[in-house]
Amino acid sequence: VLTALVMVGILLLYAPFYQMLIVANCQKKIFWITFLGAVINIILNIFLIPKYSLYGSAIATVIAQLAIFILLVFSTLKYTQIKINYPRFMTLLSVVTLSTAAMVFILSRAGVFYLPVFYSVFIGTISYFIVLSGLNYFTRRFGIIKQDFKLFYEK
After folding, report:
1. CA distance 29 to 125
2. S-S: 14 plus which of 22, 61, 69, 98, CB 3.0-4.6 Å?
3. What does 82-138 look like in DSSP terms, one character per residue?
4. Beta bridge partners of 47
């Protein structure tokens, strides 16, 4: 459950880059990036599953998804006219990472860890969005992010 929630967060992060590459008619690049992610996942599974069982597979999948995210970002910058607003992007990435870390911490507690899947997903989702909202408020309140700051703009 925990891995699934983390993966959803990563997928939501790389969805805009994926869509920008589709708009730029770079579907072959998306294929090769996804293929490379699958190869990374298979190789990591070969090494991690014998040692860590189910958790090894989960770790391998998260690492492969992160690799896909990084490759999509670099490909978007290289093959499109989109330029990233780096301060905003890094702030957004930090906020999402901290929210995910808080969710992982809450879900790994013994009282929550052994709950039925539906309750774990619900608690994880609620905790993620509470922390995300709090961090969003904090960054806007103290001027770290301005309201009109755009994440992407054309070169």
Report:
1. 32
2. 69
3. EEE-HHHHHHHHHHHHHHHHHHHHHHTSHHHHTS-HHHHHHHHHHHHHHHHHHHHHH
4. none
